[in-house]
């Protein structure tokens, strides 16, 4: 018997920390010392902040390294981090640090570069709340996906991983556990979030479900 | 026009946004806010409060709005404060600070027992001094650029600011180091006010005809005060560079502050640079009419905001909301609104602006795409509904510990 899926949503209030980086060492210091929510915010909020922007800008760290520091190879390395491999923020932080330190070792001259603009470190206060949207089965789930706000989509597909410390998105978990559709759940997990905007992600989830139906 | 209700925004911003605001407001519950500023009419802060206060009340948040009083001397002082906080040199004497404090004390006469008191800008900032044993929360909302304040003034004002529970700035660029939490609230435009609401094409036609600006070729427009930081002379030069390659008209629309010798000087320079060019139209208002400005933006093919130094420049958001392609100078809040190549073009020089005009007028599909993306960016970040959401989040976070996600059940 399936359980009802009640969609949640989230909203964030951006906080200014007053901290900024002007070069790669400064960025590294911020990544090492900032809060977990800062790491998560700068890694994934680009989905929200620039949803009209297509690839490759899916992380604030990568965007700054690419645009302001003009270290394109490092930006690419930061952009392809597969976050499904990191089930908590500390592991993600360590991965970011390892990539940057490795790059700096191999390209010591990049230490001397000063960014065109500083990197401003933000933190965030996050509020999660239930919406009045429900799904009872796969068809109603598909219909709801088309109607929920992008904030709700962002929460279930990306942000909820921060709270649950799971590698999985909420959607595929519910489809597997509650509807017993493991093969469909696997297909949803295979969706490459790095190459979609939020609206693109919405269309892709709907497409995968429709193909299944 | 009657004051719009929250429901009236559904069409402009989408029903899901209004639904989520309603849900958040229901979690806020029976809370109250007092807004305090220094003017009831005129200026961006009063304009914003005029719309935000009734909407917060409609959502069940009891919101009051107090305007402080002051004589001419006080407002002369706070005008100096405003300029000096944005970096202007000024040699403040002790008496000036005393007069400022005396006026704040005089205004400390009403109750301030709402759950959240939001004090806007420096004029009433010292009110906090008389509420240090408060049980409620006080937030200072700073709408100006504090990144490079006059040191003497900042030394005086900072201890008052740090008595607040938190500060709100419009941009990370504007914020100094402080010992209290800082939030970022982008300023916002109202999609339903006269400056931004949809207009009939025939009205737009009428306005261009009224001011004798033919629409026989693409129109490139900058709407800004005649102020050196808005670089209107640079705009004329950029236009002339571009017109060697693309046939177009330039429309400069600006308000002129009464008895402002600086703007007279700039206007004279603009006129000299423009010469007798029949394709350059220089309009001067005192003051302009919101619907006419709206019409100028809607009837233009391309909007420039070629500022060298800026506050937040919400004129960019206004143009983007109307799906206009915008070329903006990389200053102040403009880069937050224009993601170069996605929601507009960011430029750093007259030459860059000239090239941008050529590029966008020769590639109308690209210009349209920038305009569409720009509207989405404004929808996401720079609308009044987003401001409301931020105020609700601020209320929700008031009594909860920092650093933890707030789950509302």
Question: What's this model, at a glance?
Answer:
With about 210 residues, chain A is of the alpha+beta class.
Oligomer, anyone? heterodimer
Distance between the termini of chain B: 39 Å
- Gross morphology of chain A is elongated
CA radius of gyration of chain B is 22 Å
Content-based structural category of chain B: alpha/beta
Q: What overall geometry of chain B do the principal axes of the alpha carbons give?
A: globular
Mean pLDDT of chain B: 92
Beta-strand content bin of chain B: 15-25%
Q: Unreliable stretches of chain B, pLDDT < 50, 5 or more residues?
A: none
Name the CATH architecture of the largest domain in chain B.
3-Layer(aba) Sandwich
Helices and strands of chain B, in N-to-C order? HHEHEHHEEHEEHEHEHEHEHEHEHHHE
Major sheet of chain B: 6 strands, parallel
Count of helices of chain B? 15
**Fraction of residues of chain B in helices?**
40-55%
What is the topology, as strand order, of the major beta sheet of chain B? 2-1-3-4-5-6
Give an overview of the whole structure:
The complex is a heterodimer of chains A (213) and B (409). Chain A is built from 11 helices and 2 strands. With 213 residues, chain A is an alpha+beta fold. In chain A, strands 1-2 form a two-stranded antiparallel sheet. Chain B is of the alpha/beta class. Chain B folds into 2 domains: 6-188 and 383-397, Glycogen Phosphorylase B (Rossmann fold), CATH 3.40.50; 201-381, Glycogen Phosphorylase B (Rossmann fold, 3-Layer(aba) Sandwich), CATH 3.40.50.2000. Chain B has 15 helices and 13 strands. In chain B, the strands form 2 sheets. A 6-stranded parallel β-sheet of chain B has the order 2-1-3-4-5-6, with helices on one face. A 6-stranded parallel β-sheet of chain B has the order 9-8-7-10-11-12, with helices on both faces. In chain B, α8 links the parallel β7 and β8. The relative contact order of chain B is 0.12.
């Amino acid at each position: 018997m399936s359980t009802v899926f009640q969609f949640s949503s989230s909203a964030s209030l951006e906080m200014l920390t007053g901290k900024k980086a002007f070069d790669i060492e400064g960025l590294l210091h911020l990544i090492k010392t900032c809060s977990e929510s800062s790491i998560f915010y700068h890694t994934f909020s680009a989905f929200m902040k620039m949803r009209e922007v297509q690839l490759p800008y899916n992380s604030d760290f990568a965007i700054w390294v690419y645009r302001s520091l003009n270290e394109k190879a490092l930006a690419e390395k930061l952009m392809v981090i597969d976050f499904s491999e990191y089930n908590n923020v500390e592991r993600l932080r360590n991965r970011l640090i390892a990539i940057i330190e490795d790059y700096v070792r191999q390209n010591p001259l990049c230490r001397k570069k000063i960014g065109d603009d500083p990197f401003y470190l933000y933190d965030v206060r996050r509020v999660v709340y239930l919406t009045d949207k429900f799904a009872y089965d796969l068809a109603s789930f598909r219909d709801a996906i088309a109607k929920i706000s992008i904030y709700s989509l962002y929460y279930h597909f990306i942000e909820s991983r921060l709270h649950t410390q799971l590698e999985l998105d909420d959607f595929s978990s519910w489809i597997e556990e509650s509807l017993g559709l493991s093969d469909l759940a696997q297909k949803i997990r295979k969706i490459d979030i790095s190459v979609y905007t939020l609206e693109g992600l919405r269309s892709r989830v709907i497409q995968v479900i429709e193909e299944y139906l | 026009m009657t004051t719009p209700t929250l429901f009236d925004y559904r069409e402009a911003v989408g029903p899901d946004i209004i639904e989520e605001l309603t849900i958040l407001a229901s979690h806020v519950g029976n809370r109250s806010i007092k807004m305090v500023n220094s003017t009831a009419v005129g200026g961006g802060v009063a304009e914003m409060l005029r719309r935000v206060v009734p909407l917060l009340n409609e959502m069940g948040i009891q919101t009051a709005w107090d305007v402080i009083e002051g004589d001419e001397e006080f407002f002369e002082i706070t005008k100096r404060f405003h300029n000096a906080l944005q970096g202007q040199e000024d040699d403040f004497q002790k008496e000036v600070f005393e007069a400022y404090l005396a006026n704040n004390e005089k205004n400390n006469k009403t109750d301030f027992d709402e759950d959240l008191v939001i004090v806007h800008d420096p004029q009433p900032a010292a009110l906090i001094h008389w509420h240090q044993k408060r049980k409620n929360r006080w937030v200072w909302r700073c709408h100006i650029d504090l990144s490079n304040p006059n040191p003497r003034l900042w030394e005086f004002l900072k201890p008052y600011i740090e008595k607040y529970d938190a500060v709100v700035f419009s941009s990370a660029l504007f914020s100094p180091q402080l010992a209290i939490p800082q939030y970022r609230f982008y300023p916002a435009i109202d999609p339903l006010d006269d400056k931004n609401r949809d207009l009939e094409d025939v009205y737009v036609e009428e306005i261009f005809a009224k001011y004798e600006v033919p629409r026989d070729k693409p129109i490139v427009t900058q709407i800004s005060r005649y102020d050196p930081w808005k670089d209107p002379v640079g705009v004329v030069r950029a236009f002339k560079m571009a017109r060697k390659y693309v046939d177009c008209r330039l429309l400069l629309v600006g308000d002129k502050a009464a008895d402002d010798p600086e703007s007279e000087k700039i206007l004279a320079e603009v006129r000299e640079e423009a010469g007798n060019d029949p394709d350059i139209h220089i309009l001067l208002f005192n003051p302009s009419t919101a619907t006419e400005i709206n019409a100028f933006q809607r009837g233009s093919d391309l909007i420039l905001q070629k500022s060298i130094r800026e506050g937040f420049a919400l004129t960019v958001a206004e143009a983007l909301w109307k799906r206009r392609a915008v070329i903006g100078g990389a200053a102040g809040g403009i880069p937050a609104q224009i993601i170069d190549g996605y929601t507009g073009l960011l430029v750093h020089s007259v030459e860059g602006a000239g090239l941008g005009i050529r590029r966008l007028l020769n590639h109308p599909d690209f210009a349209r795409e920038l305009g569409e993306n720009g509207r989405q960016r404004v929808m996401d970040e720079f609308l009044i509904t987003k401001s409301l959401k931020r105020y609700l989040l601020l209320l929700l976070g008031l009594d909860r510990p920092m650093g933890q996600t707030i789950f509302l059940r």
